[in-house]
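> call design_seq(struct)
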């Protein structure tokens, strides 16, 4: 059936649904079984076996495997069973590494998949006569859906009613200008997609107006589904940090390969077996090159992001985590973010009357004001069985709707009694909304909105007194809306602002309050301590905004509050000069938000900006960190953002910055740990080969150390809790490198420390017993266990004993497993022989234990004397 060609009632009949009651619950399961879930076919994930094979794509791993095979073949030819151990062990360790890589990759994918599910779109649907919000994937053909500006269209649908509806369809049609939609349009059978003006399509967005539609196609049957194959194959882009680490790995790899090449040549000249020294050199290269670093960073990022989800911050793009650590300015909406977003109508003023408190038994004049105000609202309030309220729509509208409700005028009843015939939706430029309702046989135009925008449109009423009342209410931090009306003789052919929003009779004012969130004041104080500047941006009256800002500590002595009109009169250079002194922006437009963001960015600041409307999307994109509101935010705003606040709370932004700083600090700890230990291995083998013409570590010993230290401790270190003083430091500059503040120097010094410890153990073991194998055993034990101990040292720049040595239970568990793996190859008979290890005299074990804990003494000394410390 060509739904766009048929009359709307015929479409409803064909889909066995009703405009007012929607589908029945009993129909849903059968329809879902027939059409499936409303989602596009996803790219088939790689099997576990293919992921396992992917682990062997690294060139050095392939060279090592080739060397092991050659060694195995030589052992077979020579018929010496003892020679089978080394190649077999190398193969086993490489396979174990591959399994570990698959586990890590799988864990990261699951974490990211969970994030994807959390950010799934929703739809407003009518079923069994009740309006509710459901996951878009649960829609079926025949569902009645409601659409308004800012929504993503969840499925292909035929419009049944529409009011000034426009849809952005560039993803399907290539048209950059939003398409005008009309439920009553007559469309030709052969009309192209862009001309089907009575249809809306999945994946597009509503940019203006409202509408009600019936779902006609879902999932792969939608127009977007038909081109879904074009959308497949888009890989997940690496974050800037991952790219830097990948490049770093290449440079370190070149250095390691050069060192390994020199080791190989020195070994050959010293008479070492070519195959043995080749395998040692290749094993060292495999161990020293941090090829797993980007993967571990992904895991640390995804684990951190999951932790942020529990704190109501949903990160949509991983690079945002890195940027969060640098945030220096947070531009926040007031309503619902700094305040509780539970608007309650507390006062009303009827023209030429007195201010009256709202209760369940107001005067008839106030009741009429509330009736007209509620008729001009799209919001609704649903009373749940447990007695709680679900407010759907704009909080200011639901406050009016609820005030009318408690005065005996439920929204559903008045909508049915006084039919809405026409409307002009609210937009942020006009700051008005208009409806035409049939009331007692007359056509009544009702206009609701900001008083300063309404005043020039009124020709009747005591506007001078109303202005005084407005200012008085605003000074009490009340949000004030004006209501006006007029009666017209006939309906215009098309509702326009010019025709309806003029010659109005002023009716009255309603004042509502949205008190500050209790946690917002503390969050602002944390921002100040952390060197982050909070800025309030609101559509409210400047007096109201300033009052709230002063209470929260955002507006300080000497600061300025600016209106959108005043901002419009300023040039960019004037704004640049003044921006650092402006703490409050009131009555701003979405275009103003972009100017504010760019002004701060020109000052070199990293800016976070909140937004919820469809018009906020450009500002969210322009900001370094766009924060969409999860409750009141439109789908378009969420799609343009880097982060969604699932509780619309300013304190959550501050918590997210704190977590972002913590995650970045943890990544630096992991990088420092892995690179320091890897440098130690290279230097130890390099120096020993140059000085003694002997290798202190055999190939399988190097690979086992790599397996022990490069996986579990590194990941566990990345799960370290955020340090309590992380918000006591200024933000990280945007251009600051990963190795700033001496981290690069410390990594090299720590590498030299590990090399010195390994070489000391090697020489002591060799000279004490006269057995080279004993020296290699000492070097292996000292290097492997000292690296595990170093993971604890890297947890903080504070003393390990101050934060509690074993407070990171994940790291403690990982360390115990790693130590058990080392002990297994040191002391289990047969296994130690296979690894080229021998039992040592007890004196050497005592010395080894002492050497293993040297890093604790060195690091504690460095922290005590400020060689390692926080940037202040």
């Amino acid at each position: 059936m060509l739904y766009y060609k048929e009359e709307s009632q015929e479409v409803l009949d064909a889909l066995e649904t009703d405009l007012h009651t929607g589908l029945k619950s009993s129909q849903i399961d059968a329809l879902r079984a027939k059409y499936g879930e409303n989602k596009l076919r996803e790219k088939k994930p790689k099997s576990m076996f293919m992921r396992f094979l992917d682990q062997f794509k690294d060139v050095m791993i392939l060279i090592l495997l080739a060397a092991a095979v050659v060694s195995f073949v030589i052992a077979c030819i020579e018929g010496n069973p003892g020679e089978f151990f080394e190649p077999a062990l190398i193969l086993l360790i490489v396979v174990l590494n591959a399994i570990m890589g698959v586990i890590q990759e799988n864990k990261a994918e699951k974490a990211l998949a969970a994030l994807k599910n959390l950010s799934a779109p929703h739809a407003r649907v009518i079923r069994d006569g009740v309006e509710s919000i459901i996951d878009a994937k649960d829609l079926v053909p025949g569902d009645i859906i409601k659409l308004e500006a800012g929504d993503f269209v969840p499925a292909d649908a035929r419009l049944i009613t529409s009011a000034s509806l426009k849809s952005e369809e560039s993803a399907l049609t290539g048209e950059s200008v939003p398409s005008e939609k009309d439920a009553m349009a007559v469309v030709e059978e052969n009309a192209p997609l862009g001309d089907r003006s009575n249809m809306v399509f999945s994946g597009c967005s509503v940019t203006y107006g409202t509408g009600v539609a019936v779902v006609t196609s879902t999932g792969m049957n939608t127009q977007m589904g038909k081109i879904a194959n074009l959308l497949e194959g888009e890989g997940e882009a690496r974050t800037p940090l991952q790219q830097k680490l990948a490049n770093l790995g290449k440079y370190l790899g070149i250095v390691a390969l050069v060192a390994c090449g020199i080791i190989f040549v020195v070994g050959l000249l010293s008479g070492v077996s070519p195959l043995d020294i080749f395998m040692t050199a290749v094993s060292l290269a495999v161990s020293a090159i941090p090829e797993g670093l980007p993967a571990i960073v992904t895991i640390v990022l995804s684990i951190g992001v999951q932790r942020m989800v529990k704190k109501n911050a949903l990160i949509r793009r991983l690079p945002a985590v890195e940027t969060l650590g640098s945030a220096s300015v947070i531009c926040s909406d007031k309503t619902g973010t700094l305040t509780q977003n539970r608007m309650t109508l507390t006062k009303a003023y009827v023209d030429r009357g007195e201010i009256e408190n709202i209760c369940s038994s107001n005067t008839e004049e106030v009741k009429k004001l509330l009736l007209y105000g509620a008729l001009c609202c799209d919001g609704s309030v649903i009373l749940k069985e447990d007695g709680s309220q679900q407010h759907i729509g704009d909080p200011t509208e639901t406050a009016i709707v609820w005030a009318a409700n408690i005065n005996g005028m439920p929204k559903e009843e008045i909508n049915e009694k006084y039919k809405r015939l026409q409307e002009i939706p609210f937009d942020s430029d006009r700051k008005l909304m208009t409806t035409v309702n049939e009331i007692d046989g007359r056509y009544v135009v009702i206009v609701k909105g900001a008083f300063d925008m309404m005043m020039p449109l009124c020709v009747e009423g005591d506007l001078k007194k109303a202005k005084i009342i407005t200012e008085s209410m605003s000074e009490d931090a009340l949000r004030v809306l004006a209501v006006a009306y007029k009666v017209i003789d006939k309906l215009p052919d098309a509702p326009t602002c010019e025709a309806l929003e003029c010659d109005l009779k002023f009716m009255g004012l309603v004042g509502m309050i949205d008190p500050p969130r209790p946690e917002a004041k503390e969050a602002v104080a944390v921002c100040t301590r952390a060197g982050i500047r909070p800025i309030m941006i609101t559509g409210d009256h400047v007096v109201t905004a300033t009052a709230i800002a002063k209470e929260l500590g955002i507006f300080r002595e000497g600061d300025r509050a600016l209106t959108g009109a005043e901002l419009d009169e300023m040039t960019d250079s004037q704004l640049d000069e003044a921006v650092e002194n402006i703490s409050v922006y009131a009555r701003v437009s979405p275009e103003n938000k972009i100017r504010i963001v760019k002004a701060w960015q020109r000052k070199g600041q990293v800016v976070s900006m909140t937004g919820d409307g469809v018009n906020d999307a450009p500002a969210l994109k322009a900001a370094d960190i766009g924060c969409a509101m999860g409750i009141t935010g439109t789908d378009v705003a969420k799609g343009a953002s880097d982060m969604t606040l699932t509780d619309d709370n300013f304190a959550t932004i501050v918590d997210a910055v704190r977590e972002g700083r913590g995650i970045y600090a943890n990544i630096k700890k992991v990088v420092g740990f892995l690179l320091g230990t890897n440098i130690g291995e290279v230097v130890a083998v390099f120096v020993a080969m140059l000085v003694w013409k002997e290798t202190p570590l055999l190939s399988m010993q190097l690979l086992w150390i790599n397996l022990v230290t490069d996986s579990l401790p590194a990941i566990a270190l990345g799960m370290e809790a955020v340090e309590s003083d992380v918000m006591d430091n200024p933000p990280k500059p945007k251009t600051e490198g990963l190795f700033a503040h001496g981290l690069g120097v410390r990594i090299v010094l720590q590498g030299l420390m590990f090399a010195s410890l390994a070489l000391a153990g090697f020489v002591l073991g060799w000279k004490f017993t006269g057995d080279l194998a004993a020296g290699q055993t000492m070097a292996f034990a000292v290097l492997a266990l000292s690296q595990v101990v170093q993971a604890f040292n890297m947890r903080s720049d504070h003393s390990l004993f101050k934060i509690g040595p074993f407070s990171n239970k994940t790291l403690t568990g990982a360390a115990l497993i790693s130590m058990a793996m080392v002990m297994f190859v040191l002391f289990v008979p047969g296994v130690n022989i296979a690894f080229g290890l021998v039992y040592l005299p007890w004196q050497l074990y005592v010395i080894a234990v002492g050497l293993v804990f040297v890093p604790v003494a060195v690091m504690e000394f460095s922290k005590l004397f400020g060689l390692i410390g926080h940037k202040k």
